[in-house]
Write a structure and sequence with these properties.
Layout: H1 2-8, H2 12-24, E1 44-46, E2 49-51, H3 53-69, H4 74-79, H5 82-103, H6 109-118, H7 131-139, H8 145-166, H9 173-184, E3 186-195, H10 207-216, E4 222-223, E5 226-234, H11 236-240, H12 247-256, E6 262-263, E7 266-274, H13 277-288, H14 293-300, H15 305-308, E8 309-314, H16 321-327, E9 339-341, E10 344-354, E11 357-358, H17 361-393, H18 398-404, E12 410-415, H19 434-442, E13 452-453, E14 459-468, E15 471-472, H20 475-507, H21 512-515, E16 523-529, H22 543-549, E17 557-562, E18 565-575, H23 581-610, E19 613-615, H24 617-625
Antiparallel strand pairs: 1-2, 1-19, 3-16, 3-18, 4-15, 5-12, 5-14, 6-11, 7-8, 7-10, 9-10, 13-14, 17-18
Helix pairs in contact: 2-8, 3-5, 5-8, 9-23, 10-20, 12-17, 13-14, 17-18
Length: 626
């Protein structure tokens, strides 16, 4: 096992893994990493391996930062269950670590050192490891080498263990060739569309035909269950319209929330990190002669402009307090005196400054007014819900309690589970959520429900007055609808028979163009149709027709329903792809990766059976709320 570990250090998997690891530091904060007072209680565990609160919060920050950079907001992150996904990933990692510990698998100092030294991010222009460059790269992200190396050590072990499971998967060339040919084969065809005439005279069905159609399709004429509901809703949105907010309260809220409307001063900061005081003073002397900051940094600190660029940041975003104080004390374009900071001697300059800006009260007054009204209305809704509960508990009916509190009572004579009335119209004045209608249809007839939270800071209570059970409507009620559907079906069948006759002609040797001539149809050429229906012309080819085109021989035809017409296609050519060594290698790689992933999934399942997994859900929830 250790021999495998030594060999795997140089693999592409490891290189990519740690390249990503370095990049991911940019999204992590430093605040909790070295906090000795962090609680020791674990978020989860797999076997003897625990997932600390620190690990969980760091992983959450990383994923949140990356996803928010792609435009996702906090609410979207909650909806996608980001916390559960992050926790699942950490549990999987802990399982691998638990297994590695049991096997005695470990990454030696020599292995970790080799990985760091071979990383191009830590090498100078000559391709040699540069200790100063290494420390600068980590320092710019707010990390110490010791922490990075501890993370690296764990990742080497996990990656090596996984590599022993999915490494060495190979796919035979003959299988890869067959799969590539199947995937990349395309087909050329000519296609015509025979429309279903909605006005075609198909006659009026006899009573026997109407009865037969009704009997065969009875479920199409089923009426849903309807309920008569008495309902009282307490909505903060409606209550907010009655709340008056004076100017003094708006001004007070503005003063209290001024930070929300303040964009702090930001500066573009370049930091030259120098090895010692003597070099730092030499750099300052060169800068005082008017030399360019970046040029001096390249010469004396062996740093590129990208290495020096800390971005355009606020003072609070700089991890080193000494750097922050120095940078934000400078005038634009000036440079600081040499100073010793958390990561060594440095000089900073600020070539760009964005002054602090505050949105005036006039710009945010309406927002503040609405927020205050909603806040007051939310409190009022809660108080009214309690008052309503108290009155009903005292023996009042829903109507009596609502009238005493000036609340509106709505009676809906019949609504179905989708919120529609007996005419098929959507009922207004009800919560538009599936949960509400499920609750309404789970409540027993004749009973008042308990006061319910509507999920939007409001409340409601209801009573089911009567229930009309779901039933299949009598033929007499739906006869006109049955006749209409029978006629639609007859038109479809008649058109399908014509399409089938055209297919038969083509299969007998007639060209599609000649076969559809009597219907005056356009014939479209569609080349290079893939198995998914895509083609260079962008023509929409029905999926059933595509499937048939890949089954029939050249010169033959097929047909399929396509909306309000039948599409008829004749296959004109089969395009067999050229199989190159490059394409074959690509297929082999993709197949091998898929098989390797399957092996890892199975391995993970086996580890879950071997090492017990536990999650401290209350702790996770509390961390997410902080």
């Amino acid at each position: 096992m250790l021999q495998i570990l030594r060999h795997s250090v140089g693999s592409m998997v490891i290189k990519v893994l740690f390249g990503l690891l370095v990049l991911s530091f940019a999204a992590w904060g430093i605040g909790d990493i070295f906090n000795p007072t962090s609680p020791s209680q674990a978020v989860a565990s797999a076997g003897d391996t625990e997932i600390s609160q620190q690990d969980f919060l760091q992983a959450m920050r990383t994923q949140e930062s990356q996803l928010r950079a792609r435009g996702m907001d906090v609410e979207q992150l909650k909806q996608m269950g980001l916390a559960d996904q992050v926790l699942a990933g950490l549990v999987n990692r802990a399982l691998y670590e638990a297994e590695a510990n049991e096997l005695g698998l470990a990454a030696t100092d020599k292995i970790v050192s080799r990985i760091i030294r071979n990383n191009p991010a830590f090498q100078n222009s000559s391709g040699e490891f540069d200790r100063a460059r290494y420390e600068v790269a980590l320092a710019n992200q707010g990390f110490r080498p010791q922490y990075y190396e501890s993370v690296l050590r764990r990742d080497v072990v996990v990656s090596t263990l996984v590599g022993t499971v999915n490494g060495g998967v190979e796919v035979p060339g003959t299988i890869a060739k067959d799969i590539y040919t199947w995937q990349k084969e395309t087909r050329d065809a000519v296609i015509a569309r025979l429309p279903i005439n909605p006005a075609a005279d198909v006659g009026t069905p006899s009573d026997e035909q109407v009865q037969a159609f009704y009997d065969e399709h009875k479920e199409r004429f089923r009426a849903p269950e309807y309920r008569k509901i008495t309902y009282v809703g307490i909505s903060p949105e409606k209550l907010a319209q009655t709340v008056e907010i004076d100017e003094a309260r708006i001004k007070e809220a503005y003063d209290q929330r001024k930070n929300e409307f303040t964009a702090p001063e930001k500066r573009k900061v370049l930091q030259m990190l120098l090895p010692d005081e003597e070099t730092a003073k030499k750099a300052a002397d060169e800068l005082s002669k008017g030399r360019d900051f970046v040029e001096v940094g390249k010469e004396l600190a062996d740093m590129t402009e990208n290495d020096m660029d800390l971005g355009t940041v606020s003072k609070a975003e700089l991890p080193d307090e000494a750097v922050a104080d120095a940078a934000f004390a400078l005038k634009k374009g000036a440079f600081s005196e040499p100073q010793e900071g958390f990561f060594g001697w440095f000089i900073v300059t600020t070539p760009e400054i964005k002054a602090e800006s505050i949105r005036p009260l006039a710009d945010v007054a309406d927002q503040l007014k609405n927020d205050l009204a909603k806040e007051e209305a939310t409190n009022l809704a809660y108080e009214l819900s309690n008052d309503m509960d108290d009155k009903i508990a005292g023996g009042a009916t829903i109507e009596e309690a609502a009238n005493a509190l000036n609340l509106t009572v709505d009676v809906f004579d019949g609504i179905d589970r989708s919120g529609k009335d007996k005419d098929g119209k959507t009922v207004s004045n009800l919560p538009k959520t599936a949960a509400f209608f499920k609750f309404a249809f789970d409540t027993d007839e004749g009973l008042d429900s308990l006061m319910q939270d509507d999920g939007h800071d409001g409340f409601f209570i209801l009573r089911v007055d009567s229930v009309t059970q779901s039933r299949i409507k009598d033929l007499a009620e739906v006869r006109a609808n049955v006749v209409d559907l029978w006629q639609q079906d007859a038109r479809r069948k008649a058109t399908q028979e014509k399409a089938a006759a055209i297919v038969e002609k083509v299969n007998s040797g007639t060209s599609l163009k000649d076969a559809v001539a009597e219907f005056n149809l356009d014939v479209q050429t569609v080349d290079a149709i893939t198995r998914s229906g895509e083609n260079p012309s962008g023509s929409a080819v029905p999926a059933p027709l595509v499937a048939d085109l890949f089954k029939i021989d050249t010169g033959k035809a097929a047909q399929a329903l396509a909306g309000d017409s039948f599409a008829i296609a004749s296959l004109t050519k089969v395009n067999v792809p050229e199989v190159t060594d490059e394409s074959l290698d690509m297929v082999k790689t993709n197949l091998a990766n898929g098989m390797a992933n399957d092996l890892v999934v199975q391995f993970n399942a086996a580890l879950r059976n071997k090492h017990s997994v536990s999650v401290n859900r209350p702790l996770v929830d509390s961390l997410l709320q902080n």
